[in-house]
Specification:
By secondary structure, the protein is an alpha/beta fold. Helices cover 45% and strands 13% of the residues. The protein is built from 23 helices and 18 strands. A hairpin with a 2-residue loop joins strand 17 and strand 18.
Length: 641
C-alpha cells in the first residue's frame, strides 16, 4: 500500500513496473495495467463486457474470485462493514475485485481462441442455479440427524428437575457474560453455596463505549462489532496527569526500541550485540516463570459524562435487560472476562466477543460505578427499582485461561462491604472447581495446577479451548438451567418474558438482534474452521507469521488466513469442536418471537436459510416448538423419540 492511495491505485503503481507476469508469459501486462481505467468500477464494467458475463452469473463469479484472495478479501469486507455502520462506504473490496478481474481479462484476451468453448461452459455454470447432488443430500441428512440427536440431549437436560434456586434474598449475585466458558464457572460458583445467584448477560453490559486506555489515544471499540459506540470513556482523570505523562514517555521509548529490534537492517546488529543478554529472558519465558497480571488501569469514566436523567435511564434499561430489578444481594459482582495468554496472535479471539475482542473489565467498571451512584439509585427508586442502601456493585474480571477472578473493589468510594472476604473465598473455591473441570479436556494437563502454567508458556498452542464445542444459545430464567451440567457448550442469557411483556418484548427483540447474531458468528466461525479449514480456517498455528497487525500468513507467503487455527478445534487426535449449527432456545411466547422475526428480516434469514435452529421453551421446560421457516412453527416431540 501507498499511504493516501487506494488499493487499486497502489497496485497499479507497482504492477506497471513488475516484469514477473511478462516472464511467466502474460505479454504486455505492464502496459495493460498502465492503460487501465483509474476508476476500479469502470474496469469492473469493462471486464464484465470483455468476458461476456450476464447479470445472472455475476454474483457467483465475483464471489469465486474474492474467495481466491482469502483473508485479504475478508478484511476488505470488514472495512466496508465498519464504514456501513457509520453510514459511509469503503472501496477496498471493489479495488481487490478490479485487480483480480484485470488478471482474468488479460488472460482471457491472450488465450481467447483456445478456451472459447470451455469459457462458455464456465459462464453457463455461474449463471445457473446451484443444485444439490446426491452426495450433498446425504451430507445434509446426516448433518440434520447429528444436530437433532444433540438437540434431544439438550431437551432432556432442560426438562430434568435440577436443584432449585432459593427464593429468599441471595448473599451474592454475580453477573457474567453469556460466553460458553462462563457456564462452567457459574455452575462452579453456584455449587459452593446455595445462597449465590448468577446472571448471564452480554459481556459489554449494555455500555457501548469507545474507550481510550490509560496514557493512550487509541480508540478501542469495546462493544459488539454490529453496533456503533454510543459513549466515550477514558481511564483516569486529572489526578493521574503526571503518571499519564510519565507512562507515555516510557511507552514511546519502548515502541522505539521495538522498532529498532525488528527493523530490516538494525535487527541483525541487535542480535549480534545484545543476543547473549537475552539468555535470562529466554530461559524465564521458556520455563513460564514470569507472572500474569490482570488489567489494572485507573478507574474508567465517561467523557463527557451523561446528564443525571440519562444516567438514570441507562441504569434502568440495563437492569431491566438483565432481569435484575428486585431481590438485590448485599454484593453484586459485574464480571467481565478476558484471557491472559503469551505469544498468541489470536489472543483477541479468546477475549470477550461482546467487547469487540477486548477484555471486559472496562465495561464492568463503568456499569458498577453507575449503579453505585446514590443519585442514580434515587432516580431508579422513583421508577420502581429499589436498590437497598447496603448493596454494593463491584466490578470483576474472569480470566478464562486461568479461571482466576480479579475484583476491582478499589473503585468503591465507600468502605468495602463486610462480606467481601467471604466472597473472595467463594470465588477461590469456584476457581479451583472450574480449573479441575477444564483440565480434564486440555491436552497434557495433569490437573488444575497446570492451568496457570499453560497460560504463561510461550510455546503452548492450546492455552484454553475458547468457545470450542458451542452448540446452544438459551435465553430463559436461570432456574431453567440451574444445576444442569451443560459442559461449557451453551450461551446462557437470563431472560424473564413475563417482566418483558409489560415492555412490549423490547428485551426479547434486543436478544435476537444482538447477542444471538454475535453468537451465530462465533458458532459459524468454529463450524467453518472445522469442516472447511482450507477455506475458512487459519491453518497450522506453528507456522503463523503476523502480517500487517490484522491477520496471519501460514509460513512466509500465500494468502492471509482467516478463521481459527487447526489447534483451536483439534487436539492432535480428534476434533474438539463438534460442527453443529447453533440451536437457539427462547423461553417466550411463540407470537412474540414471530413478531420480532417479522420485524427484522435479516435476523429471520439466519433461521429461514438454516444457518441456525430456533426453538421455544414451554413453561414446563420442554422444547415445545421448532421454527420451520417462513414464520411457521411445528410441534417438537420433546425428545421422546
Amino acid at each position: 500500500m501507498i499511504r493516501g492511495h487506494s488499493a487499486w491505485a497502489a497496485w497499479r503503481s507497482n504492477a506497471t513496473h513488475d516484469l514477473t507476469p511478462e516472464i511467466m508469459g502474460l505479454h504486455g501486462f505492464a502496459r495493460i495495467v498502465a492503460e487501465a481505467p483509474q476508476d476500479p468500477l469502470a474496469l469492473i464494467g469493462r471486464a464484465v463486457n470483455t468476458l461476456d458475463l450476464d447479470e445472472a452469473a455475476l454474483a457467483s463469479y465475483f464471489h469465486q474470485l474474492l474467495l481466491t484472495l482469502g483473508g485479504w478479501a475478508q478484511y476488505a469486507r470488514y472495512k466496508l462493514w465498519q464504514a456501513e455502520l457509520r453510514g459511509d462506504t469503503d472501496m477496498t473490496l471493489a479495488d481487490l475485485l478490479a485487480i483480480r478481474l484485470l488478471w482474468e481479462e488479460s488472460l482471457y484476451l491472450q488465450h481467447q481462441t483456445a478456451i472459447t468453448h470451455q469459457w462458455a461452459a464456465v459462464r453457463a455454470d455461474h449463471g445457473s442455479e446451484a443444485l444439490a447432488d446426491a452426495d450433498d443430500l446425504v451430507d445434509e441428512i446426516l448433518q440434520e440427524a447429528t444436530e437433532r440427536a444433540s438437540q434431544r440431549e439438550l431437551a432432556e437436560s432442560l426438562a430434568m428437575t435440577g436443584s432449585q434456586q432459593r427464593q429468599d434474598q441471595p448473599a451474592l449475585q454475580a453477573a457474567f457474560c453469556i460466553d460458553v466458558r462462563s457456564e462452567v464457572y457459574r455452575r462452579a460458583l453456584e455449587s459452593v453455596d446455595s445462597a449465590i445467584q448468577t446472571i448471564g448477560f452480554a459481556g459489554f453490559f449494555g455500555v457501548a463505549t469507545e474507550h481510550r486506555g490509560f496514557a493512550s489515544d487509541t480508540a478501542e471499540h469495546r462493544l459488539p462489532v454490529l453496533l456503533n459506540p454510543a459513549l466515550q470513556s477514558v481511564s483516569g482523570d486529572e489526578r493521574h496527569a503526571a503518571q499519564d505523562q510519565t507512562t507515555r514517555f516510557a511507552l514511546r521509548a519502548k515502541r522505539a526500541w521495538g522498532r529498532f529490534k525488528l527493523a530490516a537492517v538494525s535487527s541483525f546488529a541487535f542480535v549480534e550485540a545484545t543476543g547473549p543478554l537475552y539468555a535470562v529472558k529466554l530461559l524465564r519465558d521458556a520455563l513460564g516463570l514470569h507472572g500474569t497480571k490482570a488489567p489494572n488501569e485507573p478507574m474508567p469514566r465517561l467523557v463527557p459524562d451523561l446528564t443525571p436523567d440519562a444516567r438514570i435511564s441507562a441504569a434502568e434499561t440495563i437492569l431491566k435487560a438483565m432481569s435484575l430489578t428486585a431481590r438485590f444481594a448485599p454484593i453484586v459482582l459485574i464480571a467481565g472476562h478476558g484471557a491472559n495468554v503469551t505469544n498468541n496472535p489470536h489472543a483477541s479471539g479468546l477475549n470477550c466477543g461482546a467487547c469487540g475482542g477486548y477484555s471486559g473489565e472496562v465495561n464492568a467498571r463503568l456499569l458498577a460505578g453507575l449503579l453505585n451512584d446514590r443519585a442514580v439509585r434515587a432516580g431508579l427508586a422513583e421508577r420502581g427499582i429499589h436498590i437497598p442502601q447496603g448493596t454494593a456493585f463491584i466490578a470483576a474480571l474472569h480470566d478464562t485461561t486461568t479461571d482466576r477472578v480479579t475484583l476491582y473493589d478499589g473503585d468503591l468510594s465507600e468502605a468495602a462491604p463486610a462480606g467481601l472476604n467471604q466472597v473472595r473465598t467463594w470465588l477461590d473455591n469456584a476457581s479451583a472447581l472450574a480449573r479441575a473441570e477444564r483440565a480434564a479436556r486440555l491436552p497434557h494437563a495433569d490437573g488444575q495446577a497446570d492451568i496457570a502454567r499453560r497460560a504463561r508458556d510461550w510455546a503452548e498452542v492450546r492455552p484454553e479451548w475458547g468457545l470450542a464445542g458451542c452448540k446452544a444459545f438459551i435465553a430463559a430464567p436461570r432456574a431453567r438451567t440451574h444445576g444442569c451440567a451443560l459442559d461449557g457448550r451453551a450461551f446462557l442469557h437470563d431472560y424473564d418474558w413475563r417482566k418483558d411483556a409489560t415492555n412490549g418484548f423490547a428485551v426479547l427483540e434486543l436478544i435476537l438482534t444482538a447477542p444471538v447474531v454475535v453468537a451465530s458468528w462465533i458458532s459459524l466461525q468454529y463450524y467453518g474452521s472445522t469442516v472447511a479449514p482450507a477455506a475458512f480456517g487459519a491453518g497450522n498455528k506453528l507456522l503463523h507469521n503476523v502480517v500487517g497487525g490484522i491477520g496471519v500468513l501460514e509460513g512466509n507467503g500465500g494468502n492471509m488466513r482467516a478463521g481459527l487455527a487447526w489447534q483451536s478445534v483439534h487436539d492432535g487426535e480428534k476434533l474438539m469442536h463438534e460442527p453443529l449449527r447453533l440451536s437457539v432456545c427462547l423461553e417466550a411466547p411463540v407470537e412474540a418471537v414471530t413478531a420480532v422475526l417479522e420485524k427484522h428480516p435479516q435476523v429471520r434469514a439466519l433461521f429461514d436459510n438454516r444457518w441456525l435452529h430456533l426453538f421455544v421453551i414451554a413453561d414446563n421446560g420442554q422444547l415445545a416448538k421448532r421454527y420451520a421457516g417462513n414464520l411457521s412453527w411445528q410441534d417438537e416431540p420433546h425428545g421422546s423419540d
